[in-house]
Q: What sequence folds into this?
């Protein structure tokens, strides 16, 4: 898929699937994140081998990844990670990160919407998101999208600085998500794609 999308501030980005040629752009995107943003990432995406592995996961089908491009730069990265395990085949884990200069323009919502579309094509029935407690914007956007907080595992993970953090798991079934997205569309909150 490839979609040109106009953001709330009228800037345009192109949302498309990640491909092998995105290695350098992806490394540059993760390198451009603030220390604070990087702290809560699950993997150290400053490392080339980590970014290479993310691309291999797309090629092997264990993850669907989208990027948003502005000019020639990646400004957002969104993923749906699929479990190969039989008992969790219907579950996808969503991850999103938007460049600071592009936040609060609806891009996170739009990337999530495109991932939900791809999820239904991949027979995913339920989406989970995991975040550390300080990631307040994440809780906000997913709550707005219809996710509910399911569990909190106190001090379960360590951020990249080595500090233990509570892990929050939110989930939503895809059908309910579609109802929420319909509300967005009806409210004119869905960004224009051409
Ligand atoms: C969370 C994140 C993906 C949101 O992306 P975004 O493009 O800013 O999201 P949107 O513009 O679509 O916001 C949709 C709604 O979410 C809520 N929201 C988003 N950021 C918020 C913030 N900082 N504070 C409060 N509410 C927020 C708002 O309700 C917003 O709607 P509004 O702008 O009309 O009020 C982005 O802040 C980010 O990349 N954060 C760092 C990484 C992260 O935490 N990822 C999620 C864990 S996987």
A:
């Amino acid at each position: 898929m490839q979609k040109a999308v106009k953001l709330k501030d009228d800037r345009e980005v192109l949302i498309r699937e990640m491909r092998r040629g995105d290695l350098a752009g992806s490394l540059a995107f993760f390198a451009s994140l603030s220390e604070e943003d990087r702290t809560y990432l699950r993997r150290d995406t400053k490392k080339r081998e980590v970014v290479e592995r993310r691309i291999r996961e797309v090629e092997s089908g264990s993850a669907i990844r989208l990027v948003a491009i502005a000019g020639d730069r990646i400004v957002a990265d969104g993923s749906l990670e699929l479990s190969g395990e039989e008992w969790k085949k219907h579950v996808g884990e969503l991850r999103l990160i938007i460049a600071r200069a592009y936040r609060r323009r609806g891009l996170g919502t739009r990337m999530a919407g495109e991932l939900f579309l791809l999820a239904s094509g991949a027979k995913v029935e339920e989406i989970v998101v995991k975040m550390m407690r300080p990631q307040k914007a994440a809780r906000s956007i997913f709550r707005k999208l219809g996710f509910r907080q399911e569990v909190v595992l106190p001090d379960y993970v360590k951020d990249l600085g080595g500090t233990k953090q509570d892990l929050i798991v939110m989930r939503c079934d895809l059908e309910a998500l579609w109802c929420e997205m319909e509300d967005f569309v009806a409210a004119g909150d869905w960004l224009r794609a051409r």
